[in-house]
Specification:
- The protein is of the alpha/beta class.
- The protein has six helices and five strands, in the order αβαβαβαβαβα.
- A five-stranded parallel sheet has the order 1-5-4-2-3.
- It is elongated.
């Protein structure tokens, strides 16, 4: 009986952890790559690509600046917390993490591009 309860609790904890990693953070807007095409070039928007420098050099969208995910926390001061930040990566996983981090750091308007560069055609 005790082992069953422990197993159920472990399962629930693991499920909660996974759901928390995959769902967007509260207050983060999501857009598709095709919606991003309509929003490119807007004034007062900061475009951030959180892929590695090598991925960024190989192919990137004009107007995006490269701040790799692992550097984002220490380089967040380069961005304005008041302006919208649109974040992209290769598939949408790193940009989801980046979006959550930016919200935790106090950024008010964060947008994540679902599907990332894989969806960019």
């Amino acid at each position: 009986m005790t082992q069953t309860i422990v197993n159920i609790l472990l399962f629930l904890l693991a499920a909660w952890f996974l759901v928390g990693r995959l769902l967007p953070a509260k207050g983060v807007r999501t857009i598709t790559a095709s919606e991003l095409k309509k929003e490119l070039g807007k004034k007062d928007v900061q475009y951030v690509d959180v892929r590695t420098p090598m991925e960024f050099r190989a192919h990137h969208i004009r107007g995006f600046q490269n701040i790799p995910l692992h550097e984002l926390k220490k380089r967040a001061h380069e961005l304005s917390k008041e302006k919208e930040v649109i974040v992209i990566c290769q598939s949408g996983m790193r940009s989801t993490k980046a979006s959550k981090l930016l919200k935790k750091l106090g950024f008010k308007h964060v947008t994540n591009v679902t599907g990332g560069m894989n969806a960019w055609v």
